[in-house]
Amino acid sequence: MADAIRQIGVSEVTFYRWRKEYGGLSGDQLRRLKELEKENERLRRAVSDLTLDKQILAEASRGNF
């Protein structure tokens, strides 16, 4: 097992952490999880951008520009 882990280029700790986290998932479930993680990241960025825009507009409306 250690040779296979080295061949894919990850540490044993990483492999066992991945196995613990994703071990019970089927291929379809894993793909769906990755899609949801991407969507979550995109939405987080959108909220962050909108929050920054709101703060900029609030500063401008107070005349502190």
What does it look like?
The chain has 65 residues and is mainly alpha-helical. The chain has one domain. It contains three helices and no strands. The chain has helices spanning 2-8, 12-22, 27-62. It is elongated and about 65 Å long.
Number of domain units: 1
Gyration radius, to the nearest Å? 21 Å
Helix count from the secondary structure assignment: 3
Measured between the Cα atoms of the first and last residue, the distance is: 61 Å
Q: Kindly state the mean pLDDT as a whole number?
A: 91
Order of helices and strands: HHH
Proportion of residues in helical segments: over 70%
Low-pLDDT stretches are: none
Which tags fit this structure?
83% helix; single chain; elongated; mainly alpha; 3 helices; 65 residues; 0% strand
Helix-strand layout with pairing:
Elements: H1 2-8, H2 12-22, H3 27-62
Summarize the model shown.
With 65 residues, this protein is an all-alpha fold.
